[in-house]
Amino acid sequence: MMFTKKSHFKDTLKEYCVQEGFAITILWADKSRYTATCAAKCCEWRVHASKLPDGRTWVIKKLWPDFHTCQGFGNLQPYMQCEVGSSQTHGRHKGKP
Ligand SMILES: [Zn+2]
């Protein structure tokens, strides 16, 4: 996948996020590289793009995995789903007075 300029790449990425219903966290972004990951902690999805030697064209070097493991599609709180079962201790008090 190629883009004529960086803003084109960023716009496309943004549209994709809105369409699929998830947020991204930018890990690294400078003049020649751009790496972002899904904002959900439990999700492995990430994208890496970099600028070609021509100084204008941007290309997606890596986009993996193909799908999100965060189940954030259309969900307003993908984060909450991830945390369930990991560090919740509230259930402990249930049987006690
Ligand atoms: Zn995700």
Explain this structure.
There is one protein chain. This protein has two helices and five strands, in the order βαββββα. With 97 residues, the chain is of the alpha+beta class. The protein has one domain. A five-stranded antiparallel sheet has the order 1-5-4-3-2. Strand 4 and strand 5 form a beta hairpin. About 18% of the residues have low confidence. The protein binds zinc ion (ZN). The site of zinc ion (ZN) has 8 residues, from loops.
Q: What is this structure's SSE topology?
A:
Blueprint lengths: L1 E2 L2 H15 L3 E6 L3 E6 L7 E6 L6 E7 L13 H6 L14
Antiparallel strand pairs: 1-5, 2-3, 3-4, 4-5
The structure holds zinc ion.
Ions, cofactors and other ligands present here are: zinc ion
Indicate the proportion of strand residues: 25-35%
| Helical residues, percent | 10-25%
Describe the biggest sheet? 5 strands, antiparallel
**What is the count of structural domains?**
1
Care to count the β-strands? Answer: 5
Radius of gyration: 18 Å
Biggest sheet: strand arrangement:
1-5-4-3-2
Summing up helix and strand content along with how strands pair, one would put the structural category as alpha+beta
Q: Count the helices. How many?
A: 2
Low-confidence stretches: 74-81, 83-91
Please tell me the overall pLDDT.
80
Shape descriptor:
elongated
Distance between the first and last residues' Cα: 60 Å
Please write the string of helix (H) and strand (E) elements: EHEEEEH
